[in-house]
């Protein structure tokens, strides 16, 4: 085992891998996964869980016969199920001498950079002290349009936040198939992906069970985020014996997503810009600026900005477009929209406007991350 390379492991477990078909926690499924996670802990790994299952574990006790679809019922079910889930995890880990902790987050916690960094500090303290943090979206209080929406992309974002060495997504399927296996029983398993191309995206379909949420589509979105953050990830079947241990050691059946070493490796600030910030406006830049700034990595100068959309302050994240409206990237601007407008109006001479519109380390090129946001 290579301890140094695989020290910090993030594991996402889907609803169907934790609950029975009748809307209850499956003690047997949970016990099996906890036992395998304990084996990693005993080997010295730090482990963070992103666990789904709050709605699936709670709807029956709320009096619903199947997983509710209306928001208030789902939120009420999550309020019951989340407590039960954490209680079960805590008991099972405690039997092996480990402590579990609960972290519930909403998208707005991450869109504020200070709160984002604060979450990281908290999780790092827990991991450093051997605790197993268990993350879920705060389903009970989050409105649909403010949601991360699925725990697949949430797990990749949290893995990036804490600089995990690996992300394992455990599901009810043993990997990515070249077609949705629900629709084509002859679909073939893909063992390794080094780049998420449109062909790979086209393979992914929706959820397979009545409790699953994002299906393979949100998992591919998650792997895109993980790869852009330089994290190797895996998807495999939660019920397979020793899946956790074997996946960490790259011997499990499933699909591994391995980032290209020369590819993008967004640091934490760039991850925040790309996945969490939410741009506040747009700047349109001319063709020679796209070439100079993006391709040749030169400075982005004020006279390259031909148009500004929206109202934003200095320090805001903005979307950069070319003059044909194509997305060029996202980044933090050194001037407000007001200053840009004045500069363009007053013959390019505004006091205080200096040379650089955006620092390179505050720019993320070319990636459009548009994910679904409803559970
Ligand atoms: N190309 C594909 N390869 C594998 N599974 C796929 C594919 N397209 C769609 N799926 C479906 O995605 C399901 C897993 O997602 P989901 O039901 O959301 O599970 P979870 O609760 O673990 O997140 C699989 O059971 C399968 O039915
Ligand atoms: N946050 C929700 C689960 C959202 C989700 O992504 O579910 P799943 O597709 O089962 O991983 C819950 O705990 O019920």
- Heteromolecules bound: adenosine-5'-diphosphate, the ligand N[C@@H](CCC(=O)OP(=O)(O)O)C(=O)O
Q: Return Rg in Å.
A: 22 Å
Distance between the termini: 38 Å
CATH architecture of the largest domain: 3-Layer(aba) Sandwich
Give helix % range: 25-40%
Shape descriptor: globular
Number of domains: 2
Assembly form of the protein:
single chain
The CATH fourth-level homologous superfamily of the largest domain: Acetylglutamate kinase-like
| Secondary-structure element series | EHEHHEHHEHEEHHEHEHEHEEEHE
Number of strands: 13
Under the CATH scheme, which class of the largest domain? Answer: Alpha Beta
Derived from helix and strand composition plus strand pairing, the structural class reads alpha/beta
Organism: Pontibacillus salicampi
Keywords: Amino-acid biosynthesis, ATP-binding, Cytoplasm, Kinase, Nucleotide-binding, Proline biosynthesis, Transferase
Domain PUA: 281-357
Protein name: Glutamate 5-kinase
Describe this structure in words.
Belongs to the glutamate 5-kinase family. Residues 281-357 form the PUA domain. With 375 residues, the protein is α/β, with parallel strands linked by helices. It has 2 domains: 8-269, Carbamate kinase (3-Layer(aba) Sandwich); 278-365, Archaeosine Trna-guanine Transglycosylase, Chain: A, domain 4 (Roll), CATH 2.30.130. It has helices at residues 27-42, 54-62, 71-94, 107-111, 113-128, 151-161, 198-203, 215-228, 243-248, 268-276, 287-295, 337-345; strands at 8-13, 46-51, 100-105, 132-137, 166-171, 192-193, 232-237, 255-257, 281-285, 305-309, 317-322, 327-332, 363-365. Strands 3-4-2-1-5-7-8-6 form an 8-stranded mixed sheet, with helices on both faces. It has a 5-stranded mixed sheet with strand order 10-9-11-12-13. Strand 11 and strand 12 (327-332) form a beta hairpin. Helix 6 (151-161) packs parallel to helix 8. The radius of gyration is 22 Å and the shape is globular. It starts with 7 loop residues before the first strand and ends in a 10-residue tail after the last strand. Residues 14-15, 52-56, 78, 136-137, 139, 150-151, 212-214, 375 line the site of the ligand N[C@@H](CCC(=O)OP(=O)(O)O)C(=O)O.
């Amino acid at each position: 085992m290579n301890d140094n390379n695989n020290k910090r492991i993030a594991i996402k477990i889907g609803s169907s891998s934790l609950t029975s078909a009748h809307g209850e926690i499956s003690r047997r499924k949970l016990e099996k996964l906890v036992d395998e996670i304990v084996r990693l802990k005993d080997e010295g790994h730090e482990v963070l869980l992103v666990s789904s299952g709050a709605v699936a574990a709670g709807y029956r006790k709320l009096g619903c016969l199947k997983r509710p679809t209306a928001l208030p019922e789902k939120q009420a079910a999550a309020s019951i199920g989340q407590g039960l889930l954490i209680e079960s995890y805590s008991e099972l880990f405690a039997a092996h001498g480990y402590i579990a902790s609960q972290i519930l987050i909403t998208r707005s916690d991450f869109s504020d950079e200070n709160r984002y960094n604060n979450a990281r500090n908290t999780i790092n303290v827990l991991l450093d002290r051997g605790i197993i943090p268990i993350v879920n979206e705060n389903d009970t209080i989050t409105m649909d349009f403010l949601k991360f929406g699925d725990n697949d992309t949430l797990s990749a974002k949290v893995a990036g936040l804490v600089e995990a060495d690996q992300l394992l997504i455990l599901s009810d399927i043993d990997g990515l198939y070249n077609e949705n296996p629900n629709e084509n029983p002859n679909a073939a398993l893909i063992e390794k992906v080094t780049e998420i191309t449109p062909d790979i995206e086209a393979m992914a379909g929706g959820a397979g069970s009545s409790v699953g949420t994002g299906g393979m589509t949100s998992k591919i979105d998650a792997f895109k985020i993980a790869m852009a953050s330089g994290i190797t990830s895996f998807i495999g079947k939660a019920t397979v014996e020793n899946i956790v241990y074997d996946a960490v050691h790259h011997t499990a059946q499933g699909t591994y997503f391995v980032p290209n070493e020369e590819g993008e490796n967004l640091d934490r600030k760039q991850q925040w810009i790309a996945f969490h910030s939410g741009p506040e406006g747009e700047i349109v830049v001319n063709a020679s600026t796209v070439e100079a700034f993006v391709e040749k990595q030169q400075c982005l100068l004020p006279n390259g900005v031909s148009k500004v959309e929206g109202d934003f302050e200095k320090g805001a994240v903005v979307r950069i477009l070319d003059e044909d409206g194509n997305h060029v990237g996202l980044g933090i601007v050194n001037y407000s929209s007001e200053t840009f407008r004045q500069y363009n109006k007053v013959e390019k001479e505004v006091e205080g406007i200096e040379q650089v519109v955006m620092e390179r380390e505050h720019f993320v090129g070319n990636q459009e991350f548009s994910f679904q946001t409803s559970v």
